[in-house]
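Table 4 source record.
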Amino acid sequence: MTEITAAIVKDLRERTGAGMMDCKKALAETKGDMEAAVDWLRTKGLAAASKKSGRTAAEGLVGVATSGNYGAVVEVNAETDFVARNDKFQDFVKQITQIALKTGDDFNGLNSADYPEDGRSVSEQLVHLVSVIGENMNLRRVKVLSVNQGAVAGYTHNAVQPGLGRIGVIVALESQGDASKLSVLAKQIAMHIAAAAPQACTIEELDPQIVERERKIFAEKDRSVVQKSWDATERNMYQNSENKSLEEQIEDDMKRFFKENILFEQVFLMDTQDSKRRVAQVIKDATQDIGAEITSVKFVMFKLGEGIEKEVKDFAAEVAEQLAR
């Protein structure tokens, strides 16, 4: 059993927004298992559902680049957000994103690739940059998408300059249709993804373990509601004035989860405000304008520091540390 320290309780509280005593009880019930404690709080209605597996805390930049039928997204982390504004750091991220278009998903291949100056490799250039800027950095991840025929488009959110930001998305549409029109649609879908953060294109593509985890959480939560001794008014408010069974309520919750987390099920945010078209319908409707069916949709989204915990520092101390370097 993991020792339940004040620091662990604090971490759980920051992740879920639940009260300190509720977090302590959740950890006690789950023998200190952080993920199980998050689920325990959710089943009790004490924590909101979270789309991400960990806190987004690391700094740096996400780079996005496209060329022809290829698109690449790269994340490079640093200790503080000061580095993200450094010209040398920005140039490094931009350069290696372009290199990734050639090396593909091969992380080791990207690290060992020639950097376009001074005869260094990418990993050697990063070490050099650390010595120049005086702050620890690392190349965290890379992903490349491609199509045989169609279009690949990218989008960066909170951009510090074109192709560099805190969120990076690439979308690949496979089709024999008009490439220029496909590019416009792919860019719109990329912008939607940056805002809506889907976990997969279709329900079938979503990790079965995620589906099973959500179903168990809803089952436990809904079972407590069904068994609770509420009066008729309270029960009808929860069940939308319908006398639903436990299984029906669970299925309704799962449908809502899919609408929030599956790209094709989400309402397209780039449409007019009155439109309620799902992304799947947007893609279907685009067929006539593009001149051919879109046979495949793929996407990748990197959110800066997703899943990485960073030590929280006093801001004044952080500034003083930077000035001392």
